[in-house]
Amino acid sequence: MFEGGQPLVDIFVYGTLLDDGLVVQLTGRRFPRCAAQLRGYRKHTPAGSYPYVVPDDNGVVEGVVLREIDSEALRALDEYEDEGQLYRRIEVTITVAGWPQRAFVYASAK
Question: Which pLDDT belongs to residue 2?
Answer without folding.
Answer: 44
